[in-house]
Amino acid sequence: MTDFDVDLFVIGGGSGGVRAGRIAAGHGARVMLAEEYRMGGTCVIRGCVPKKLMVYASHIRHEIADAAGFGWTIPEATFDWTTLIANKDKEIARLEAIYATNLEKSGATIVKTRAVFENARTLRLGTGEAVRATTILIATGGVPNHGNPIPGIEHVISSNEVFHLKSLPKRIVIQGAGYIALEFACIFAGLGSDVTVIFRGDNILRGFDEDVRSHVRTEMEHEGITLLSGRTVTRVEKHGEDYTSYLSDGSSVASDQVMFAIGRHPAIANLGLETTGVDVDPTSGGLMVNEFSQTSVPNIYAIGDVTNRINLTPVAIREGHAFADTVYGKRSVRVDHNDIATAVFTQPEVGTVGLTEAEARARFAAIDIYQSTFRPMKATLSGRETKILMKLVVDADSDRVLGCHIVGDGAAEIIQIVGVAVKMKATKADFDATMALHPTAAEELVTMRTPTSRYARAAAE
User: Fold this and answer.
1) pLDDT, tens digit, 9 for 90 and up, residues 304-315
2) Is 438 a catalytic residue?
3) Contact partners, residue 40, CB within 8 Å, separation at least 6
């Protein structure tokens, strides 16, 4: 009998924590995992999965509208919010049960309560029980950040509450210009809401390729979404069942709901970290870790959004798996955080991997850009005003494809496999040598032969 109750204690039952616990248990470790809310974490319970289900629901409106051009006569359709939410909740409950079952089948123990550090080796559970662990993994994820307090902030909902609204708002104000804000703007617009998006910067999707940012903005405006740049919400007032959002430029917007999606921060509050000596990055608020997800305290590790590295569910899962293999599987595994494909489920959606044009210009002496914007085949009969953007960023010296950026239906599905090519350091010649699959939008990626623009850094630079 050792002095420790378990070999590994995992704080957080999200995708990363569950993967780490399951793999560690498979390697023979005695594992206990604490989750105070619901198994599955943000992604499964109130993030990627329910959001994608709602994206599907909102996209059906386009399908109905497009049908007439193909000869279909469809009676006037109606939408029922409560049915969507009930069916969504049923699916989330099913997935939650699967997460818990798979973890328990591996031999791990789940405790449905909060766990707080008493010191670097001991956790105090919400039940009052103390558990000593050889190794502790923090996988608590992130939480919505509303920014600096403003009058009326209590009237504002986040991406947590949006999944549980009792009714579809006729009008909604959303502050933010990143993944979550824009995805929900498109969801609500697709379901029939009047949507106003307010953001501080001059354009949406900061950090994405400039052509992607401009293209998505144009498409959203075509859908009737109002985008107000260069301003913020300074005050929210409630008048009966309505809200008024007052903006920094002196204007105001009335709505039935106000949602803030301006960012998330690591969920480290009230964990008792001050008793452990774990270093926190003062800039990002994330737990500082090395290439093996180890914190400044050798027996404490952290993965996923709580580290504020790349906040994507597949990254957290890969980090959790790598941690378990490294600590319990007798082999050192590092996670490569380069060239990670990602998608934004706006309408149309965005798929991107690798470097933006601006990033490539800053890092390489000469680059070639291959870019095409065209009307999708489906729209020729549907009559819908929409265009697809395809863009390749290529190192002119080595011919290596540095980045690929797509805006259009199916972009996320396309970019997953393009991510394989970029990860393998495929060249533009490799793309050119690949036979086109016709008729598809994706064939454009292997048929663009002539650069649309070229950039060469001046010799003096």
Assistant:
1) 999 999 999 999
2) yes
3) 13, 14, 15, 18, 49, 92, 95, 96, 99
239, 236, 241: which is closest to 253 by C-alpha? 236
**Cα separation of 437 and 310, whole Å?**
33
pLDDT per position as a tens digit, 366-399: 999 999 999 999 999 998 899 999 999 999 999 9
What backbone phi and psi angles, to 5 degrees, belong to 146?
-85, 0
Question: Which residues in the chain land under pLDDT 50?
Answer: 1-2, 460-461
Same fold for the domain at 6-144+265-328 and the one at 342-456? no
End-to-end Cα spacing for the chain: 65
Distance CA 95, CA 195 (A): 31
pLDDT at 332: 94
Tell me the backbone φ, ψ of residue 98, rounded to 5 degrees: -65, -45
354 Cβ contact list (under 8 Å, min separation 6): 339, 393, 401, 402, 403, 404, 422
In this prediction, residue 460 carries a pLDDT of 44
Domain positions in the chain are 6-144+265-328, 153-262, 342-456
Q: Which CATH superfamily is domain 342-456 in?
A: FAD/NAD-linked reductase, C-terminal dimerisation domain (3.30.390.30)
- CATH fold of 6-144+265-328, please? FAD/NAD(P)-binding domain (3.50.50)
pLDDT score at 1: 31
Query: Dihedrals φ, ψ of 66, to 5°?
Result: -70, -25
Binning the chain into helix, strand and coil, the percentages to the nearest 5 are: 35, 25, 40
What is the CATH number assigned to the segment(s) 153-262?
3.50.50.60
Q: What confidence score (pLDDT) does residue 3 get?
A: 62
Reduced to 3 states (helix: H, G, I; strand: E, B; else coil), residue 304 is helix
Tell me whether strands 233-239 and 115-119 are parallel, antiparallel or unpaired: unpaired
Tokens in use for 48? 């990627």
CB atoms within 10 A of CB 378: 15
- Give the pLDDT confidence score for residue 63 in this predicted structure: 94
Any long-range contacts for 358-363 (C-beta under 8 Å, 24+ apart)? 358/209, 358/210, 359/403, 360/393, 360/395, 360/402, 360/403, 361/455, 361/457
What SS3 class is residue 179?
helix
pLDDT at 457: 82
444 closest CA partner among 357, 383, 377: 377
pTM: 0.94
The span from the CA of 113 to the CA of 437, in Å, is: 52
